[in-house]
Design a protein that fits this description.
about 350 residues; 16 strands; mainly beta; disordered N terminus; about 10% helix
Length: about 350
């Protein structure tokens, strides 16, 4: 039998494979763009100013705490001598408390696509009732401000179709041996039948070997329908919850790389969570108030275009940074202790070596 005739080439889903569903016009296989959310049924209450704390400061770092942090840092480095951290003498400590403003906008987006799966006896409910519109389908985020994705089958859009990949045979020609004799080129002799001028023992000099992918059957179960021959087609909604985050750090020229601050936390001075935020007013550092106004405007103009805003949150942290000057072997050196975690940065540590791992 001609294998090409037994297993015709797979085809793409035909245009008539999917029906027309009111409210889902333009839905295609593979998905489309995000669907704009409906307008709120009732006017949204205007945002309200949040509370302002009384204390914007945190205590200075104690010298013994700075020294212990430095020792822990040196101990954790495989190529650092502990001597500078143990024997160095602190001569000066200068605090650089740094404000970090953060805004988070938690959104929900929805997109639709025609999808299919192997048919396993599910009821076909296409047109039994009117399918709910995309934003009418219930979907609950697991947690606020946490990214999450969920795929939901739209009710009353399911129908049964023949598999377009295998043409309802349930089987496909093996890609490795291309059907035929269910054999493929010997990998030892590369199909020559000889190896080192002698007959190849692996294939007995034939240059061919039994196809191990299909076990010599010349065909494999269709991956699309898993051998079921039929598919359940339906509209699927993809719901994506995304937390959009922007930070603004007010630097005080301490000398520490601002990127180092991403890995640490600070003292939370302010926190406000509402459906829509009101810009932070009256902050002692005007750069934070300006950042709040700018970023809130950007978020509220950008994200509602293609998604539904569920909640916004803004926080202000005071991240402690202490510049420590110390003497070791007569020379002056510097390290930084920063964050609630007392992380240490010492780019010019004075006693390092090169380790070679064999």
């Amino acid at each position: 039998m001609n294998s090409a005739a037994a297993f015709p080439p797979p085809s793409a889903p035909p245009a008539n494979m999917f029906g027309n569903v009111p409210g889902y016009e333009g839905t295609v296989a593979g998905g489309g763009g995000f669907l704009p959310p409906p307008m709120p049924a009732e006017p949204v209450a205007p945002p309200q100013p949040g509370p302002v704390p009384d204390d914007w400061n945190i205590p200075s770092l104690a010298e013994d705490v700075a020294q212990e942090a430095f020792k822990s840092f040196a101990s954790a480095q495989c190529c650092y001598s502990k001597a500078p951290a143990t024997d160095g003498v602190i001569t000066n400590m200068e605090p650089f408390n740094t404000y970090r403003y953060r805004i988070e906008t938690f959104t929900e987006s929805r997109s639709t696509e025609w999808a299919h799966k192997p048919y396993e006896g599910e009821p076909a409910d296409f047109y039994m009732q009117t399918a709910p519109r995309p934003w009418e389908i219930q979907a609950t985020p697991p947690n606020l401000f946490k990214d999450h994705t969920e795929e939901i089958r739209v009710p009353f859009t399911s129908s049964i179709k023949e598999c377009h990949t295998c043409h309802a045979t349930g089987m496909m020609q093996c890609d490795d041996c291309k059907g035929g004799t269910a054999c493929k080129e010997c990998w030892v002799c590369n199909g020559s039948g000889t190896r080192l001028e002698e007959r190849c023992n692996h294939c007995n000099g034939t240059g061919r070997e039994r196809c191990d992918k299909c076990d010599g059957q010349a065909s494999l179960e269709c991956e699309t329908c898993k051998g079921k021959r039929q598919l359940l087609t339906f509209i699927q909604i993809k719901v994506e919850w995304v937390n959009h985050v922007d930070d603004h750090v007010v630097q005080q020229n301490s000398g520490l790389n601002v990127d180092d601050l991403r890995s640490v936390s600070g003292k939370q001075l302010y926190k406000d969570s509402q459906y829509l935020l009101y810009p932070l007013m009256g902050f002692p550092n005007p750069a934070i108030s300006e950042a709040s106004q700018r970023l809130i405007q950007e978020h509220q103009a950008k994200y509602p275009q293609s998604s539904r805003v569920l909640q916004q949150r803004q926080t202000v942290e005071l991240i402690p940074i202490t510049k420590v000057n110390y003497k070791w072997k007569g020379d002056t050196h510097v390290y930084y202790v920063y964050g609630n975690e007392n992380q240490v940065s010492a780019d010019n540590y004075p006693a390092t070596c090169c380790c070679v791992i064999l």
